[in-house]
Design goal:
By secondary structure, this protein is α+β, with helices and mostly antiparallel strands. 19% of the residues lie in helices and 31% in strands.
Length: 168
C-alpha cells in the first residue's frame, strides 16, 4: 500500500495539449499523515529536533498536539505535487511557503493549487501558482510557486537552461 495513502494524483499537463490558464485548479491530492511519514521526513533531512519524533516531548515541552511535520517534508510535497502535474520536464523555478499550523499524525492533508499566471518566453512556459495544504477547514500551509515547462510545441527543456538563460 502506498505510504502516503494518496487518493489521487494530479493529471499531468501535456506540452502538446491545451495551454494552462489563469484560474485553472490542479486536482486535489489527499495524504493521510502517519507518524512514520513525519519521522522519516525529519530524519532524511537530518532534522533531529524532538518535535518531529518524540510525541511526549512535543506535547509536554513544546505544547504541541503531537509530533509535527517539518518544513523540508512539506517543501518536498509541494514540489512533487507541481512536478507530477507538469511532467518530467517540469522544473521548479521558485517556491515559498508559510506553515500556519502543525501537521500531525492522523491528519488528512489536502494539497491544492490554482494557476495565477501563465507566460511564454524563450521556448519556456512559466506558470505561477497559489498552493495550500489544508486539514478540514484549517489551512495548515500556504505557498506560492513558479514552474517552468516546455513551451507549447517547443522542444526546449527547462532543464537545459543555466546561467543567464535561466531567469526565473
Amino acid at each position: 500500500m502506498n505510504e502516503q495513502h494518496e487518493t489521487n494524483q494530479p493529471a499531468a499537463w501535456a506540452a502538446d495539449g491545451p495551454c494552462p490558464a489563469v484560474g485553472d485548479k490542479l486536482p486535489e491530492r489527499l495524504i493521510r499523515i502517519t507518524r512514520k511519514m513525519i519521522i522519516m521526513g525529519a530524519t532524511s533531512s537530518r532534522d533531529w529536533q524532538p518535535i518531529h519524533h518524540d510525541g511526549e516531548w512535543a506535547r509536554e515541552r513544546a505544547g504541541l498536539p503531537d509530533i509535527i511535520m517539518n518544513n523540508y517534508t512539506q517543501a518536498g510535497w509541494l514540489s512533487q505535487y507541481l512536478t507530477s502535474w507538469g511532467g518530467p520536464q517540469a522544473r521548479i523555478a521558485r517556491i515559498g511557503f508559510s506553515m500556519r499550523s502543525p501537521l500531525c499524525p492522523g491528519d488528512d492533508a489536502v494539497l491544492s493549487a490554482e494557476i495565477l499566471s501563465v507566460s511564454d518566453a524563450g521556448g519556456i512556459r512559466w506558470v505561477e501558482f497559489s498552493l495550500a495544504i489544508q486539514v478540514g477547514e484549517r489551512v495548515a500551509t500556504t505557498a506560492s510557486a513558479k514552474l517552468a515547462l516546455p513551451g507549447n510545441g517547443q522542444a526546449c527543456s527547462p532543464w537545459t537552461l543555466s546561467g543567464v538563460l535561466w531567469q526565473p
